[in-house]
Amino acid sequence: YFFLFFLTPAVTLQTSWRSYRERAKYKRIRHAVIVIQSGWRGMKARRKAKRRHEAAQLIRRFINGFIYRHEEYCAENDYFVDHVRYSFLKNLRKNLPKNVLDKNWPTPPTLLVEASEHLQRLHMRNMVIKYCRRVQPEWKKQMMQKVVASEIFKDQKDSYPYSVGRLFLDSRLEREQISLKVLQTLGSEKVQYGVSVIKYDRRGFKPRLRQLLLTNTFAVLVDRTKIKQRMDYAALRGISVSSHCDGMVVLHMPCEDNKQKGDAVLHCSHVIELVTKLAMMASKTNYVNISLGSIRFAVSRTKEGIIDFIRGSELKVAKGNRGHLLVTTPQISTT
């Protein structure tokens, strides 16, 4: 008991000391938490205030740039101008045309009209290059012929719209339809194109069935197994057709040359195809004349013939009362 009497106050004192240390530790932790919270809230407040200040400055710059948007590029409008450019280019990137036939293009702001035109041309050029690289040789040849036909006949000949959707064939004659004797007479010259035509005599306009064969350097009119007329491209003076829906074509040749038989008056069911190929082979696309009225041709050195065109219900070719060749062309409905 004696020892317990002296031990009890010591234990109580030790317990009190531990309680005091724990309370002091708790106070320090609490103080540290408060300091950390205070610092974190202060940092968040400063960040928020900074963002508000930057936002206010940005709005001021944007408004100021809008006010000076028509002025030269300067410190007052640089942000607004850059924003407009970036927004347009970003929108343009998402809405670029996908093929050469798509003509849609986002409307540019006033600041980028000139740049937009340059970009549109460059983009179209890139699409054309990519498209041309994918085009097969036979289609490329077809497209070249169609382009030439468009340059010659578009808005000038009534039958042209109906030929746009039709392919130009390499030849309208099979190999077996051309006489072997004619091929032997041509020698090394290969037939590039052949088509059946009706040739009208220069005197009397009697129709005669012929074959027109085109080579690289000349064209020949063939009657079965005999070459009736050879027309060198170098001597070709011109090609005349009418503006109506008919198949008449006149190949103008020099009358001074005794080897020539004068101009060739022909009728062909594929006149646009024939004239396009002939003009390209002869390199005389500028020599094609589309007449709105009559076509004059040389019968001889001193005599001239005339082809008159009138409207009618159906196509008809006959000799007129005045000695002219009268061609009746059907009226094309625009509906």
TrEMBL record:
Residues of the TH1 domain: 157-331
Pfam families in UniProt: IQ, Myosin_TH1
Top-level division of the source organism's lineage: Eukaryota
CDD domains cross-referenced by the UniProt entry: IQCD
Ranges annotated as spanning the membrane: none
PROSITE patterns, alphabetized: IQ, TH1
Name of the featured protein: Unconventional myosin-Ic
Organism: Characodon lateralis
Lineage: Eukaryota, Metazoa, Chordata, Craniata, Vertebrata
